[in-house]
Write a structure and sequence with these properties.
alpha/beta; Pyruvate-ferredoxin Oxidoreductase, domain 3; seven-stranded mixed beta sheet; 7 strands; globular
């Protein structure tokens, strides 16, 4: 079993952190894991993406030309990665800032209104955790308990007080994700 994921958005949206948490979670489940970040020199506001691979077999290369799942958080990422999803794959997107919605008919498309939900919950900083929860609901390759452990390992200790809030955001993302009707 192998899952090849791209997570993409603007720097500052927590894209790299989501990938790191997933990578740690996969390692805790004794999977082979690859985590490969890519971002511009400007970081916040520039583009950022991370490729994560989970596998029960050895991973030959972290470089991918197509993906099982794409998680996109802005229009630029949707434009760049929608065509690179394997037929039968998954596209998960946050609809905030999207002006041209996904159009592929050969993939499963899911929407999570993470920006709106984070604002409603007064937890803007947990936007990425809502998205992560949506992914876990759609593709439960890693267990929630291991995701929380991965979150603990990824966050500096000075931010560990936010773990309960982030767990709530993950659970909320699992509750609100919706499949797009084509």
């Amino acid at each position: 079993m192998t899952e090849e994921i791209i997570i993409a958005g603007f720097g500052g949206q927590g894209v790299l952190l989501m990938g790191k948490i997933l990578a740690y979670s996969g390692m805790m489940q004794d999977m082979e894991v690859s985590w490969m970040p890519s971002y511009g020199p400007e970081m916040r506001g520039g583009t950022a993406n991370v490729t994560v691979i989970f596998s029960t077999e050895r991973i030959n290369s972290p470089i991918l030309n197509e993906f099982d799942t794409a998680i996109v958080l802005n229009q630029q990422s949707l434009d760049k990665f929608e065509s690179l999803i394997k037929p039968g794959g998954i596209l998960l997107y946050d609809n905030s800032g999207i002006t041209r919605f996904p159009s592929r008919q050969d993939i499963d498309i899911y929407c999570v209104e993470a920006s709106e939900e984070a604002a409603r919950m007064s937890m803007a900083i947990s936007f990425n955790m809502i998205v992560l929860g949506a992914y876990l609901k759609i593709s439960p390759f890693v267990k929630l308990d291991n995701v929380i452990k991965g979150l603990t390992k990824s966050l500096p200790s000075r931010h560990h007080h936010t773990i309960p809030m982030n767990r709530d955001a993950i659970v909320r993302g699992m509750e609100i994700v919706k499949k797009d009707i084509k």
